Amino acid sequence: MLDASLGTMELSPAERMNLMKFVCSFAWTDLNVSHAERDLVMRISGSLHLTDSEAKQVAGWLEVPPPIDEVDPTSVPPAHRQLFLTTLGMIVKADGKVVGAEHESLELFRDLIGG
Fold first, then answer.
1. Contact, 110 vs 26, CB < 8 A?
2. For the chain, how far is it from start to end, CA to CA, in angstroms?
3. Dihedral sign of CA atoms 39, 45, 51, 57 in order
């Protein structure tokens, strides 16, 4: 499913990194990045064929979340919104439990993108 979702759309390097910024931000929603979330983030990175420097940046976001002012749902192009929403939903569910903050963040994202 992961490769199929990500493989159906061509994303520019900036768009790939924007997606990963959101992914890492959502992994931090409950203030703890679980092993399952890290694994999924790395699988997504692999599916997107990130360069070594891009992968290093993503690994950094797993240590320290991306700046909140760089994670703006309204910046996601309409053509990519469903992909972002689907991918963020996978991250929220990765550790097998969805806490209130994760559910609220996903719903807020959905509302802001008009999904």
1. no
2. 20
3. negative
- Which residues lie below 8 Å from residue 85, measured CB to CB, with a gap of 6+? 106, 109, 110, 113, 115
DSSP structure class, residue 74: G
- Burial zone of 27 (CB within 10 Å; 0-12 exposed, 13-18 middle, 19+ buried): buried
Q: What is the pLDDT of residues 44-92, one digit of tens each?
A: 999 999 999 999 999 999 999 999 999 999 999 999 999 999 999 999 9
Burial of 79-111, coded b for 16+ CB within 10 Å and e otherwise, reads: ebbebbbebbbbbbebbeeeeeebeebbeebbe
pTM of this structure = 0.90
Contacting residues for 84 by C-beta, under 8 A, at least 6 apart: 19, 22, 76, 109, 113
